[in-house]
User: Fold these one by one.
Assistant:
Number 1:
Amino acid sequence: MIPSDDQIRQLWDKYSLPENKRIHVTHVARVAEYLSACVMSHVSGIRIDIVLLHAAALLHDIDKNVLKREGEQHPDAGVRILKNEGCDELLPLVISHPLHSILDPKISPKTWEEKLLYLSDKMVKYEIITVDKRFDLWRAENLPKEGRIMLEKAYPLVKKLEAEIVGMINVKAWDIAGLVG
């Protein structure tokens, strides 16, 4: 099932998604929808399931306020929640959205929906920003050594994905916030 906006809001409430995360996922959805519309209008033959992308964008962080089971981390609990809620169609997008997924060929974003959700998530904190700004914010955090290493390994791959997508639509990454707004 791909949930409706009303069902998504009910899931936000059921799993106590914090207000700041609701803002984040709403902006992620806006960026993803904007990018998908641009890609489809600039490149013939590309089809993107915007309904699927929209729902996955709004639910990709559903586990942020949920007690994780032993061995779970983000987004494992979110995948479990969405599976239990019957939202199996969203699972591949949620699995492939964390920063580290781009480093793992098994779960790295491959479909257009996965790529657009992944990139859009990296262009939003609580407002729409650039990938570079998002990485600057992560670098300013007190990450453990493994986290810093992963961040630096992921950066060139995220920039490559950004270049692929924004290059197709003939837009500068730093202009997207103003265009989406």
Number 2:
Amino acid sequence: MVHRMKSVCLVAVASVVTLAGFATAEEPGTNIPLKRVVMFSSGVAFYERNGDVEGNATVDLRFNTRDINDLLKSMVLQDEGGGKISTVSYGSKDPITRTLRTFTIDLTLSPTLADLLGQIRGEKVELDSPKMSGIIIGIEKRKKPAGMNETVEVEYLNLLTDDGLRSVPLDGVGKIKLANPKLDAELRQALLVLALGKSVDKKSVTLSFTGAGKRPVKVGYIQESPIWKTSYRLVLSDAKPLLQGWAIVENTTEEDWDNVNLTLVSGRPISFVMDLYQPMYIDRPVVQQELYASLRPRTYDQDLDASENEFRKAAIVIKPASGSPGGPPAKKAMEQLAKQESGLQRNRAVDEKAAAGRYLEGEAKARFDPGAVESVAQAADIGEMFQYRIATPVKLGRQKSAMLPIVNDSVEGEKVSIYNPAVHAKHPLNGLKLTNSTDLHLMQGPITVFDDGAYAGDAQIQDLPPKSERLVSYAMDLDTEVAPTMTGEPEQLLAVRLYRGNLHLTRKYGRVQTYIIKNSGKKTKKVLIEYPLDNQWTLLEPKEPTEKTRDLYRLAVTAEPGKPATLTIKEQRTANEQLGLSNLDDGTIQFYISAKVVSDKVKAALAEVIKRKAAHGQLIAKRGELERQVQIIFDEQNRIRQNMAQLPKDSDLFRRYVTKFNEQEDKIDLLREQIKSAIAHETADWDALNKFLVELDLA
């Protein structure tokens, strides 16, 4: 029994081997080696494969699942020998179990032989031992004695043969062959999917080329890649500085680079990832079918009074409607048929036009030959980007990195000391004004500086195009000391203007920054002072800075050994201020009247403002006096009420209080009228003052 089961297992393994051999013989794979890599500083790289194919060929490539989206977005294929590109097929993103379930024979749960045969009930199979063929009815399990008191379960294959029903124990079957070739092919294809899908992180991409003879083809695509980096060495001496630059590249692919042409491109090309690998569906509305109520059938009695001919005429003649709301049923039916026929004609016309369009489209596609389209553009440069072409083909193993020399030239440079109090309050930094005198665009990166054969420090530069200058600093200049002092100048009133009730002032402010530089070294030094640039301030002295950046002025000072050097920076700014005249006190207005820069017209207007405000103040005081008198009476009346509450109403003093109370009420009424008149006068005067102020326009 054990020997028989091993035989069945060996047959199954042989089927997989046969399947793999079958696939290779049907579509022989061709290898296209990697020949060119272009690495970008934006996190991607372009890979180009060149090779030859012969006849109808397929090329199998393996990619990480995360790279499939870049592949679908960027892959370019060229058949340079007159052939055609058929298809590019790749594994689905869905789990392999979902793919396996699409086959007739489901291999997702590692089925046994009995499970497989149970899935193909009704199919014809051929057995080698015992020799027979038949249609599978099903799998039956029976118990058989095994020893004294034990039984085992044996699976039987039930078949319908030409001789009738047969039941064969599976452990006695040597070989089973599927008689249905389509089913046999599906089983082999499912096994192939199972074999290729073992690595969930890898997907197979198959390129199909059709054509005749041996011919060259190209395949190019973008993949995620580490950015390439640069580092520099700067050697300073009495001669010109020597700049040596290296590019750092990494091969993170799973393929060795063997004599690959490498190009390094820098810049900021836009690069993004779009999920083209994930199947996408859109929601569609569900439209319910309209349901109509069925009509009940009617029965009609025969017209016994009409003759037979008249009866026949009534059956075939349709009379026109005579103003009835709806025509006879027969007429409506004919009209409906006519509409349907018209609609069918229109649909046929539309279908014919659509078919013609599809035909023309197919003809156009058939005539279009991508190889016949010649681009009018010629490569001259790469726009805003720059590139380094490595002259010697590169050999670099997978998951390895390398340093490649990209520049080794003398450059222009001048030693300077750079002082910025935000970096160090006392000492400047040793630096170099570096000029890129090479023809290469130097990419940003660190610089290790050597001076007179010794390590001097580290620096860093940003991207440096040819013929451009940059400052690099690499150490503190302990031989040079800078002492800055800041003094302010008194503000000056430049102009005064009256406009629409406001006093418009223009003032000037000044400040002076002085730097005292002491050089304790033995050589004369050029010191660059970095001074913050403020757009509100205008530089007066010196008239022009040595350099100007987005945020800084740089001003050069020559410092002789042992002698202090001085740099004076003068700046000024003007500021405009607006004050409401109605809110200013007399003292402030009098200050501007006495200012020398104020014109006589403005002074006269300001004096008139003081006069009018004083008059308006008198009106306010008069109204206040009247309100004070009313308040005095109110206080007196409160005292009288308290006293009256303690007296008998028929007493003389009570009557006297009543008389006085009446006299006070008359006086209150008079005062209220006077207050009302004073408020009106005050309001009119205030309006007149505001009108006067608004109409002012003097400078």
